[in-house]
Amino acid sequence: MRFLFLLTVAVTAVVAQSPFEAVEKGGTWIDLTYEFSEDTIYWPTARCFELKTEFEGMTDKGYYYAANQFCASEHGGTHIDAPIHFSKGMQTVSDIPLERLMGMAAVVDVSAKAETNPDYQVSVEDFKAWEEKNGRIQDGAMVLLRTGFGKHWPDRKTYMGTSELGEGAVPKLRFPGLDPKAAEWLVENRSIGCIGLDTPSIDFGQSTHFESHQILFKANIPALENVAYLEKLPTIGAFVMALPIKIKGGSGGPTRIVAWVPNG
Q1: At what angle do helices 180-189 and 124-134 cross, to 10 degrees?
Q2: I need a labelling partner for 230 at 20 to 30 A (CA). Which of 57, 92, 101, 146 fits?
Q3: What are 98-114's pLDDT values in tens digits?
Q4: Span 139-162, average pLDDT
C-alpha cells in the first residue's frame, strides 16, 4: 500500500491513465546509474567488471543471436550495500524490503564544502541546516548526499584519490563520506528508508573502521554508492527507486537507480 501511495503522489496518475502516461505529461525520468564496463570503478581490492562474448553472429539456422557472460565483485559501480555487509545477521540483498528501496528523495548538497576538502564528512549540522530550509526529513525518505565527486567519474585517480590497485592503494583513498556521528543521528532521530551518495563508500576514503557502515547497517538501513548525476535532482520532490540484482545471501550488488522529477 505504501508503494501505491508514493507512486500516486509522485506521478499524480488519474483513473484510466497509466503512470507512464502521467509521467510523460508531468515530469521526467532520470537515470542515476553508471553503465557497467571495463571503465567501471571498483574498490582497489575488488574484482573489476568483465564481459566476455559467448556467441555473436548468425546461427546455422539463419537467425542472429548474441549472448555474453559477466563477472565482477558485488561492490563496484552503482551498487547497494546490504546491511549484512558490515553487520552480522542483518538483511542480505534479497531480504531488503521493497519499501526501503523507493521513496521521496531528500538531496543534501555539500559539494561546496567537499570541493576544497576531499576528506569532508557530511555532518549533523549539514542535516539540521537542510531541515531548516526544507522541513523535517520524511519518514521512509531516500537520503542522497551530493558531494560533487560524481563529476570526476570515471577518472579513478580524481574520483578515489588514487589510480592504484591492491591493498597498498587503500590508505591512499581520498573522497568524502558520512560522518559516523551523523549516521548515528539519523538512526536515532529519523526514520529513513535508505541512504546514498556519489562516492565509492558511505564512509570517507580515509576511514579505517567504516563506522558509518556499521551504525547504519545495525539498523538495517542499506546504502547506495557511486550514485550518478545527483546534480540533476532537486533538493526535494523527486521520487527514487533503487532496484538491485536480487542475489540470495548477497552482501551487495549492481543496482539500477532511477528518479522521477516532476515539472516545475
Answers
A1: 50
A2: 92
A3: 999 999 999 999 999 99
A4: 98
The stretch 76-88 carries a mean pLDDT of 98
Cβ neighbourhood burial of 220 (10 Å; 0-12, 13-18, 19+):
middle
Q: In the chain, at which residue ranges do the beta strands (DSSP E only) sit?
A: 27-31, 50-58, 64-71, 79-81, 102-109, 121-122, 142-146, 177-178, 194-197, 223-225, 236-244, 252-262
How far is residue 165 from each of residues 28, 45, 104, measured CA to CA in Å? 38, 6, 37
* pLDDT digit string, tens, across residues 37-71: 999 999 999 999 999 999 999 999 999 999 999 99
Q: Are strands 79-81 and 50-58 parallel, antiparallel or unpaired?
A: unpaired
CATH of 2-46+74-262, one of 3.40.50.1450, 3.40.470.10, 3.50.30.50, 3.30.360.10: 3.50.30.50
Q: 46-59: buried (b, 16+ CB within 10 Å) or exposed (e) per residue?
A: eebbeeeeeeeeee
Average pLDDT over all residues of the chain: 93
Closest by CA position to 72, among listed 98, 43, 95, 93: 43
- Measured between alpha carbons, how far apart are the two ends of the chain, in Å? 27
Contacts for 207 with CB less than 8 Å, ≥ 6 apart: 177, 201
C-alpha cell at 6: 508514493
